[in-house]
Amino acid sequence: MWSRNPFDPAIEGDWMYGRGGADMKAGIVANIFAMDAIRNLGYQPAARVHIQSVVEEECTGNGALACLVRGYNAEAAIIPEPVDDKLVRGNVGVLWFKVSVKGLPVHVRDAGAGQNAIEACFPIIKALRKLEEAWNVEKTNFKYYKDTEHPINFNVGKIKGGDWASSVPSWCEFDCRIAIFPDWDPKEKSLEIESCIREASLNDAFLSNNPPQIEWNGFFAKGYVLEEGTEAEKVLGESHFLAYEGDMKSFISPAYLDARVFMVYGDCPCLVYGPYSENIHGFDERVSLSSVRKITKTIALFIADWCKLEKI
Amino acid sequence: MWSRNPFDPAIEGDWMYGRGGADMKAGIVANIFAMDAIRNLGYQPAARVHIQSVVEEECTGNGALACLVRGYNAEAAIIPEPVDDKLVRGNVGVLWFKVSVKGLPVHVRDAGAGQNAIEACFPIIKALRKLEEAWNVEKTNFKYYKDTEHPINFNVGKIKGGDWASSVPSWCEFDCRIAIFPDWDPKEKSLEIESCIREASLNDAFLSNNPPQIEWNGFFAKGYVLEEGTEAEKVLGESHFLAYEGDMKSFISPAYLDARVFMVYGDCPCLVYGPYSENIHGFDERVSLSSVRKITKTIALFIADWCKLEKI
Hints:
- The structure is a homodimer.
- Chain A is of the alpha+beta class.
- Helix content of chain A is 36%, strand content 21%.
- Chain A has helices at residues 21-40, 62-69, 117-137, 186-202, 205-209, 231-244, 259-265, 289-307; strands at residues 10-12, 15-17, 43-45, 77-79, 87-91, 93-102, 154-161, 171-180, 213-215, 220-221, 224-225, 250-253, 270-272, 277-278, 286-288, 309-311.
- In chain A, strands 6, 7, 8, 9 and 10 form a five-stranded antiparallel β-sheet that branches.
- In chain A, a hairpin with a 2-residue loop joins strand 1 (10-12) and strand 2 (15-17).
- Chain A is elongated and about 80 Å long.
- The mean pLDDT of chain A is 95.
- Chains A and B meet through helix 3, strand 7 and strand 8 of A and helix 3, strand 7 and strand 8 of B.
- Strand 7 (154-161) of chain A pairs antiparallel with strand 7 (154-161) of chain B.
């Protein structure tokens, strides 16, 4: 469904197209080129700078977590996600889970005597949609989320079930993702999800005796908020002003970001800040090259100010 | 979900357990042993007997059809399906189809802007369930089906969709089976199913512009009725009476049977008649061995009467 080969990057005007070009090779490039720019001028940072490039940001966050556990922490961190020339004020936590539903297979001639595991998933998914709406209502309790239209997003991303058109399917499983507000505890919310699924199964004679199995198979992550007023944000804002000739804006994200690793476990202010992009995780993903250049400039200026420079 | 290894057959009392033991190795064995029994007594049929063992009875019927196309027809046929010591009076036609639904993938943080292909399947499946009920209402028009509780069975047997928990899924496909009454034309009914799916998609802004694709990927078969009064049925009934010391009963089946090949295309009366079984197509499939012996006896007596015997 791409207009071009997603793995054959192409530039058209200010846009670079390609799978992962925006999310987030652009950011990695900005980090590296910022360091190169400083060196090309005959300088180096007067304090230590780590450049980290980690895996798993899209499914567990364990890559960033592993770096932290190994001791790579700092006084401030920048994660150059493609967040449209803005600073992320905070983000939701995310939970991943797989629900496995059993059915009772019988010959289709007598389908009524069986239990269709595929169709048994529908009311469970509907119940999870209701939980999503109930959680969204609670946004008024969260300063930074109360004006976000739909901060808690639930997604059924994958489904697989049954073996054969003419047998009532005996199994079906589906993979889900849901967000939780920054203060919320993943464990507590996972129990709420388990209750929701169990209750949705009680209306069904077969499922109430054969409850769906729930596996927590990825993100089990708390969210975070970068409260206003950190020195790191002030320095980034000044650097941004020089590069963009305008004030840096901030926004709250309804997606997972590795920043939670630094913020929740590392006690390190984390600035998620990066270039303008479109269609990440979708078709025809693209990033603005002029934006990548300005972001690179901001990061270079941030390093110069935060670490100070010295002649090589 | 079997109590024992399904491919390691076991006998307990009168039951033989094993996958395919009832449906339908038992019947094939009955056919072969009937011929052996005649030979062991020093006789052979005075007319030609074909023993056919075909593939694909469960998904297309093309095995039996291929035999017929090659010229293997007869004046009467017996198919020893596990139909509980009874004769099948007729059966439904069956259609198989796969429905492929597209979605619009976006990052889950903005799920509302996308279209979830998995959830888009639910209203389509519900519409097909309504069609199933509408078709069942028409049973009053069919002499042999009007007393059958639920002759038309629809089944969603398989589903698969999406690639990843955190992306709104861009595709989902599901495999279906539905029955049609004996007189109904498969082509005509396939168009009705296509209309049903198209209509169910019109309520949805995305699907109405991206209609689901429908593939007819297996059975596309008319049903049949074995009208009462054939000479073949009379001879089988007399043979059954000798083996069972009781009258042969008949019933109408809501499943597909290869008999339609002989009845619809071969102009050959086809007697579907075989042993008592439980849980075919399910867990712990089993067949009654005393029933297999009596069925074998009936078939041997049928051959003796229908073909007459001669000394080897």
